[in-house]
Amino acid sequence: MRKSIAVLSAAAFAALVMTDGGVVATAKAQMVDGPKVTWRLSLWGKRRAFSEGLEYISSEVSKRTGGKFQVKLYYGEQLSKSKENLDSISVGAIEAALFCASYHPGKNAPLNVLDLPFLPLGDLDVMLKVHEKVYAHPSAAKALAKWNARLYMSNVLPQYEYMGKGTPPKSVADFKGKRLRALGGMGRAAKAIGAVPTTVTASETYTALQRGTVDAIGFPYTYTFAAYKLDEVADWYTTNMALGTVNCPIVFNVGAYDRLPDQYKKLLDDVKAGAVEAQKAAYKAKDEINIKKWAANPKLTAVEIPEAEMAEFRRIGGQPLWNEWVKENEGKIPAQELLDLVLKTAAEASK
Question: Which CATH class is domain 2-101+147-155+247-270?
């Protein structure tokens, strides 16, 4: 898929001519001229499907500027801890970062609407459109501005499932009392069925599951479980819960972005679409590998919760918790407006 994108892009680029913004046409690709600039983008973990969109951005920005504009990716929390990326952006220690809003909900309350459980965001394309609408809302920009951060784009994640150790659950009731790594609104939903939610960063999940600190890990299906090697220590995984997801935006330091020449700003916008396609292709490829691998593993049980029970779980863990979130945030942020925006955009994007 990425090869096809590159071929189509090159054909389109070749048709362009010199512009006042510093864009020139070449036989191979659109080139953007400008000063030498190096940005550092803070990440955690290793390269994986989740980061393939960022890899695409880094590669394309460098190629289209002849190496003059570099967005260098730093994995493994080399520059900043995952829960501190927003703080590092705030003080200008880094130019760009990925962060998950649920890691520190108090810093970005408007974005937390996207982390509510069982929202109608099953399709990645629908999810992206909904995220873009919320990120463009004035309240979201205002909240991030307090941290000297500018929202760039969403690094979308598939729907969450659970992977755990011990006796495989057969019903929703079997989750009662279990300690679950459940972020954001999924933590609220876990409480609704008697489970005990906890916030564990992605980098800490392997150790937490291996040592029994938690009974199960909530992660995007399937790539994240494999990316953090949880399938090596787990006994079971769910396949049909579709619990919700979390939003993890890419943000820029405001000062760093403002100093960029206009042609570099445009270039960052131009590479977004390719980044999304690269990420979607990576998710699909990993799903095909993981599902086949897990099916052949006799020590790993696939769990499908009966649909009637999931319908009841969605009933008590969906709308009531959305309303609860709105009530909690009433007068602080336009919570009802944001929830309505999510549901309206999702409905329109799903047609």
Answer: alpha beta
